[in-house]
TrEMBL record:
Species this protein is from: Kordia antarctica
Pfam family for this entry, one: Amino_oxidase
Entry protein name: Tryptophan 2-monooxygenase
Annotated family: Belongs to the tryptophan 2-monooxygenase family.
Entry EC number(s): 1.13.12.3
Principal EC category: oxidoreductase
Region spans: Disordered: 1-20, 383-421
Organism domain of life: Bacteria
Domain Amine oxidase: 79-183, 418-673
Reactions catalysed according to its record: L-tryptophan + O2 = indole-3-acetamide + CO2 + H2O
A biological process from GO: amino acid catabolic process
Keywords: Auxin biosynthesis, Monooxygenase, Oxidoreductase
C-alpha cells in the first residue's frame, strides 16, 4: 500500500545506486543497536529465564499431531496474523487465528462490483483495490511478498486447488500520458512536460513562487528543468549517497534529523547554498532556508495536503522504496517495475487462509525453491536470478534480468492434506488478559471474544495460550466494550507507543464508466496502462486500471491521503462520489465524463472507503518526528514476560507495505522461539522463509 507519488518533474537521485541487500533491514538494525537499549535488555531478561521450555516440550511438541495443543493465539486475520500462522504451520507448531470480520486480509481488500464477472469481457475489469494494490517487483526488501505467493502455490497445487493459485500481473505506475493539472490551468499537461511547466505556481501566472524558481534552465548535459524541481534531489541526495557508502555512518547522519518533520527540515535546515550548482543569487542569500511557499509547492505536487508533517526520515527512506521499483539487475534501466495480483489482491489473503486450514502447509523444499526463483537466494551458479513461474505475460522481466538457477523443481504430485480449521472468522477479541497462574504458573494469555454464529447469534468465547501475537492496527485496541479494556497493565512505554504511533488517513473511491474514455485519448498503446494522474483537488490521484483494456466498461480509482482524505471522508457517500466526478472532469475538460458515467449505485457502480471499524482510525502507520528512535523499539518489545507480542506494519520500518506486516510477524515468531530456546525451529524458519527484517536475527540481542 504505497502512499508516495513523486511528481514526474522531480528527478530520481542518481547519486549512488542501492547496494545488494536490504537497506530497510540495515536501518532497523541500526535503530535497535543505537536506540533500543530497553528493547535489548527486556529480551535478554526474558530469554535468560527460558521459563516455558518444559511446558512447551510436554504439551506442544507431541509427536501425534492430533494431540498437539495450540501454542500461540493470533489476533487478527490480516497479513501479519496469517504470515505468523504460516510460519508456525511450516514448523509443525499449532496455533489459532481469530478474525473479527467475515473476510481475511485486513487492509488488503478488493472491491468487486456486484456486476463483476471474471469470465465476461465487459465485466471482468469491474473491481479495484480498497487497500494495498501494488509492490515493487525487484526490490530486495519487498521480495518476501512474492516468496510467500509462490510458496503458497506449491501447497495449493499439491492439494488440487489450482483455481486458487496466485499470479502476478504488471501494475502500470506511470506513462507518458498520465495527466497533471494544478491551479486552474486551462488544460492538463502530460508527464513529460512537467520538468519545465510552472503549472501556474509562478507569480506571473497568479501563484506565489518567485519567477527564478519556475524559469526554465539547462543543465550541463543539455537537459531542461525548473530549479523548483531539483530541490528534492538535493535534499535526499546527500543522505542516499552517505548510506550507500556506509550504512552505519549514513544512518547516523540521517538520524540526526529524526526530530524534524519533512516540512521543518525544508524550512529550517536546508539552505539555498545546498542547491549547489543550481543556486541563483535571485533566490536569496545562501544562508536562507526555503520559504513556506516552496515547501507548500513540494508537498502539493509530491504527496498531499499535510503529509509533510510526518518524519523527515520517513520521507528520505521512502526514496529507497521507489528506487526498489527499478531494475536492480540493470542500473541503467530507467523504467519502474511494479506488480499486482491478477484479478484482485483479495485472492492473496484468501489463498493464505486456504493453506492455513490444511493440516500441512509450506515445506522446506517449497520455501527454498521459491527463495531462489525470486532472487532472495543465490542459485546453483552462485548468482541471483529472477524467474518465478507465476507471472502473467505483461509482468515478465526485461531481458537484462537473468533467470534463476534453482536445484530441482517443486513437488507438485497430488497429495491432498486433511483439513484442519485454524482460522476462525467472526471472532472479535475484546480482551487479552495476562494471567500468571496459567500453565503451571508459567503465565499465559487469556483471550475473551465475541463470536457471531452462522445464524446470527452472539456467544462469548474464552481461550488460553502460553503466547499471543496481536496484529490489530493500534486504533483497534479501543474495544468499545462496556467497563472492560482490550489490554490492562501494559507497561508505560508500550501503552504510550500504541497511543502515539501516527497513522495516516487515506481515502479511496471507485467509479464505474460505461466507456473507458481515457484509453481512447492520446497516442497511447492499447495494451498498456496509463499509470496515475494527479491534481491539487482533494481527490488528488486518478489511478488507471492495469487490466480490462479490451472492454468498454472500466473503473477509475481515486486516491488521496492526510487532510485531503479527511475532508473527503467527512462527506456522505454520494457526496464523495460527486467530488470524485468533478475531479475527473477537471482532468478531462475535453470530454463530458458524465455522459459515460454509469450512475451512482453503491456496490454496483461505485464504492468509497475512508476507514472502517476494523482499520482502527487510519490506513497505515507513518511516523511523526522522533518516533523511529523512541517508539519503534518499544513497539517490538514483548510484554508480560514474553507472553504477548505486538505485530503489524507499524511494528516495522516498511510502513504502508505488505512486507511490513510480514516482517513484524516474522519478528514475533522469532521472539517466541528464542524464548523457548527452540534452536532447531529457528534454523528451519530461516531456511524456509529467509531472513526478514527481524532486528535481533542480526545478532544485536545476545542471550
Amino acid at each position: 500500500m504505497s502512499y508516495f507519488s513523486f511528481h514526474p518533474g522531480n528527478k530520481s537521485s542518481g547519486k549512488g545506486k542501492k547496494a545488494k541487500g536490504s537497506v530497510r533491514k540495515a536501518f532497523s538494525d541500526w535503530i535497535i543497536e543505537n536506540h533500543g537499549e530497553d528493547y535489548t535488555k527486556t529480551l535478554q531478561k526474558q530469554r535468560s529465564q527460558v521459563q516455558k521450555v518444559g511446558l512447551i516440550q510436554e504439551q506442544m511438541f507431541k509427536a501425534d499431531d492430533s494431540e498437539k495443543k495450540p501454542l500461540i493465539g493470533i489476533i487478527g486475520g490480516g497479513f501479519a496474523g496469517m504470515y505468523a500462522g504460516l510460519i508456525l504451520q511450516s514448523l509443525g507448531l499449532e496455533f489459532e487465528i481469530f478474525e473479527a470480520s467475515d473476510r481475511v486480509g485486513g487492509r488488503i481488500d478488493t472491491w468487486y462490483s456486484s456486476e463483476y464477472d471474471p469470465e465476461s469481457k465487459e465485466n471482468k475489469g469491474l473491481y479495484g483495490e480498497v487497500g494495498g494494490m501494488r509492490i515493487p517487483q525487484f526490490s530486495n526488501d519487498m521480495l518476501p511478498v512474492q516468496h510467500l505467493a509462490l510458496s503458497l502455490n506449491y501447497v495449493l497445487e499439491r492439494n488440487g486447488l489450482e483455481d486458487k493459485m496466485l499470479r502476478w500481473r504488471k501494475f502500470y505506475y506511470n506513462s507518458d500520458f498520465q495527466r497533471l493539472r494544478f491551479n486552474n490551468m486551462k488544460a492538463p499537461i502530460f508527464a513529460p512536460e512537467a520538468n519545465t511547466n510552472s503549472m501556474n505556481f509562478g507569480e506571473a501566472q497568479g501563484g506565489d513562487l518567485p519567477e527564478v524558481w519556475v524559469t526554465e534552465k539547462t543543465d550541463e548535459n543539455g537537459n531542461k528543468f525548473l530549479p523548483i524541481n531539483v530541490i528534492l534531489d538535493k535534499v535526499n541526495g546527500p543522505f542516499i549517497e552517505a548510506i550507500n557508502k556506509s550504512f552505519e555512518t549514513g544512518f547516523a547522519k540521517l538520524m540526526r534529523f529524526d526530530n524534524y518533520s519533512m516540512w521543518a527540515y525544508l524550512t529550517n535546515v536546508f539552505t539555498l547554498a545546498d542547491m549547489e550548482e543550481y543556486y541563483d543569487p535571485k533566490m536569496g542569500a545562501p544562508c536562507e532556508n526555503l520559504s513556506f511557499n516552496i515547501a507548500s509547492y513540494l508537498e502539493t505536487v509530491n504527496v498531499g495536503t499535510g503529509m509533510y508533517s510526518v518524519s523527515f526520515v520517513e520521507m528520505v527512506i521512502a526514496v529507497y522504496d521507489w528506487d526498489g521499483s527499478k531494475n536492480s539487475y540493470d542500473l541503467e534501466d530507467p523504467n519502474i517495475y511494479m506488480v499486482t495480483m491478477n484479478n484482485g489482491m483479495q485472492h492473496f489473503p484468501d489463498a493464505c487462509r486456504t493453506v492455513l486450514n490444511l493440516e500441512n502447509g509450506v515445506t522446506a523444499d517449497d520455501g527454498n525453491l521459491a527463495q531462489v526463483l525470486i532472487g532472495m537466494k543465490k542459485g546453483q551458479n552462485n548468482e541471483y536470478g529472477y524467474s518465478p513461474p507465476n507471472l502473467t505475460k505483461d509482468a515478465e522481466p526485461p531481458s537484462s534480468v537473468p533467470p534463476a538457477d534453482p536445484k530441482g523443481t517443486a513437488n507438485t504430485d497430488k497429495n491432498p492434506s486433511k483439513k484442519k480449521e485454524r482460522v476462525f472468522m467472526n471472532h472479535k477479541v475484546t480482551q487479552a488478559i495476562y494471567d500468571e497462574s496459567l500453565f503451571d504458573k508459567n503465565g499465559g494469555m487469556r483471550l475473551v471474544m465475541d463470536h457471531t454464529t452462522k445464524d446470527g447469534k452472539k456467544e462469548s468465547v474464552e481461550k488460553e495460550y502460553p503466547y499471543v501475537i496481536s496484529t490489530l492496527p493500534n486504533g483497534a485496541y479501543l474495544s468499545g466494550q462496556e467497563k472492560t479494556n482490550f489490554f490492562d497493565d501494559l507497561s508505560f512505554s508500550k501503552a504510550r507507543a500504541l497511543r502515539e504511533c501516527n497513522y495516516m488517513p487515506a481515502f479511496k473511491a471507485f467509479v464505474t464508466f460505461k466507456k473507458q474514455f481515457w484509453k481512447d485519448l492520446g497516442n497511447r498503446q492499447y495494451e498498456t496502462g496509463l499509470g496515475v494522474s494527479a491534481s491539487d483537488r482533494s481527490n488528488r490521484q486518478i489511478v488507471y486500471p492495469s487490466y480490462g483494456y479490451d472492454a468498454d466498461k472500466g473503473v477509475l480509482q481515486v486516491y488521496s491521503w492526510a487532510q485531503d482524505a479527511e475532508r473527503m471522508g467527512a462527506l456522505t457517500d454520494e457526496e464523495r462520489v460527486n467530488e470524485c466526478l468533478k475531479g475527473i472532469q477537471f482532468m478531462y475538460p475535453e470530454v463530458d465524463i458524465y455522459e459515460h458515467y454509469a450512475g451512482y449505485h453503491p456496490e454496483v457502480t461505485t464504492k468509497t472507503w475512508f476507514w472502517d471499524q476494523h482499520a482502527g482510525g487510519g490506513a497505515f502507520a507513518l511516523f511523526n518526528p522522533g518516533q523511529f528512535k523512541n517508539l519503534y523499539p518499544t513497539l517490538l518489545t514483548p510484554e508480560f514476560k514474553g507472553a504477548l507480542n505486538i505485530a503489524g506494519e507499524c511494528c516495522s520500518v516498511h510502513h504502508g507495505w505488505i512486507v511490513g506486516a510480514l516482517d513484524s510477524a516474522y519478528n514475533s515468531v522469532n521472539n517466541i522461539l528464542e524464548q523457548m530456546n527452540a534452536t532447531k525451529h529457528l534454523v528451519k524458519m530461516k531456511a524456509i522463509w529467509g531472513q526478514l527484517t527481524a532486528p535481533d536475527v542480526a545478532g544485536n540481542v545476545k542471550k
